[in-house]
From TrEMBL:
Lineage of producing organism: Bacteria, Bacillati, Bacillota, Clostridia, Lachnospirales
Protein name: Sensor domain-containing diguanylate cyclase
One GO term describing the cellular component: plasma membrane
Keyword Transmembrane helix among UniProt keywords: yes
Domain GGDEF, residue spans: 504-641
GO biological process terms on file: cell adhesion involved in single-species biofilm formation; negative regulation of bacterial-type flagellum-dependent cell motility; signal transduction
A GO term, aspect molecular function: diguanylate cyclase activity
Amino acid sequence: MKDQIRKKLCLIISAAMLFSLLLNVLLQVHLAEKSMRRESENLFWQINQILVQNEKDVEQIKADFAKNCLINAKAAAYIMQNRPEIIGNQPELEKIAKLLQIDEFHIFDTEGNLYAGSQPKYFGMNFNSGEQMQFFLPMLEDRSLELCQEITPNTAESKLMQYAAVWQEDGKGIVQIGMEPDRVVEAMKRNELSYIFSIVTADEGNVICAIDPDTHKVLGSTDSNYINRDVKELGIKGEALADGEEGFRTEFDGEKSYCLFSRTGSVILGRICPESTMYRNISKNTLMLSLYLALLGVIIIAAISRYLDRYIVRGISSVNKKLRVITGGDLDTRVSVNTTPEFAELSDQINEMIESLLDMPNKLSAVLDIVKIPVGIYEYRLNMKRVMATSGMRSILCLSSEETEKILSDHGTFEAKLEEIRRCPEEAERGIYRLPWEEERYIRMDSIPYENGTLGIILDVTEDMVEKHHIVYERDRDFLTGLYNRRAFYSRFEGIMSGKPECGHAVLFLADADGLKKVNDQYGHAGGDDYLQGIADVLLSCPAGKKVVSRLGGDEFALLIYGAKDREELEVYIDAVQKAVSQSIVEINGQVSIPVRLSAGYAFYPEDGSDCSGLMELADKRMYEAKKSRGYEPRNKRVSS
């Protein structure tokens, strides 16, 4: 008896629990669908009101614009009637067009030939020149006509215009005006479905669209990806559109959805909501109810039977064991306890919770996308292979989808990729590195190791670094010539000299522009700038592979050539510079050409010294010795060390 009671009681409890869950789901489904229908009806009514009101506005604006065109045509005809002498005065006709605020102003003779007006390029055309102009042909037969044409492309340029024409009072000609219908076109745009759907706000995941009832193509949608697509391709049959006011379920674009459609005017309005969005609260409510019923069932069953108690305890023990593994970081573990329906359901819910946890990076990615922060966040545990990371990681590291999936599938591969980046430091002390596979792309990396894993962040700092490089460039460059300025040159000079292997044999070439004051006095400072730029171009033409060119200030220039294997190689480069100077001609103010003249001196490393100040002093001394003779120090008169 006890066994039968226990069995029946278990069946009753289980049946009651399942029935309650099913009833709860059905009720919530019903309420969700009812709410969907009510909201959709209100939304469709609002869209229809927008369409109707916009149509009225367009018609009113068209009527007002046509009336204004005819009034302007009469005004122009009145002016021509009273001032016939201005017909041949083109500036005066254009002035009248501007005064009347019209775009075109034409005068036709009694045969319909255009011979005067504000647009000389149209002279010679007539009412037979095109379909648009033929609209006014009846005026040649009936002089009482006053015609205003609909907005249409004109004959000459296919430009949207509205024309109106009237006879002059004396009958000597026809006056026609044309106006660009900007306001009308703008109003018509507001009645386009693309505009209307751009101002309609759809709930997350929902799609609101307008469908052509004949072709079944999507005319407008809150999701532009569906425009001009056939609804059959998206999973909706044509006959379902006519009976869609009560709502139905279907697979829309590969996703199970609930759909509602309603005929409004010349289109069918529709609203599609994914079931995952529509019923998203049902799972949570169902989970809460199932936990309550499961707890109640456990208490009752535990009180009735020791066997059932052990059965339940065994299930709980199994779940706890799995949970310990999960909390230890192994999120690939799944709970699968089927000893009772309740535990089977609990297992599913726990597994769903794990899936939700794994989905956290995607949710965090969505938040970061909203605030538009170029940052990627990652985490991995040592007892797990997979790296959890936000979606922004791929774009920040400039990787393909396949590469991203590969490195995230194993934390060892992921760390190897980060180590590859660390081998390209930009500002290592700040954790800033350059991506080795992408030019001008910089990231900042920080990580926090903990007992069983690592949490890290990768930030795209490309914009900041490019701006910093730009500031450094402007700081170190001469504004006129683009050469290094004095401060930057000295810094580069000292840096090169401090690295002896890189320096090799070097020569410091100092030059002073001869005659700059005379050029400034004769041709102005603009001419002087041209002269200085010409000198800079000559120095930059030096064929040496390793060189630093600078404008030290005023008319002083410096050229440092380094990395040569011996002095003879340096002398070849100096000869090339001398030759370039002797052959260089600078065009001043685009009018005259004058030769480049320099006074220069050299100092060789290591023959003339090994420190920067000594080389500068010696080169400067030799430059001024050469300047006394107002020219280069000849090749065969170089000062030997």
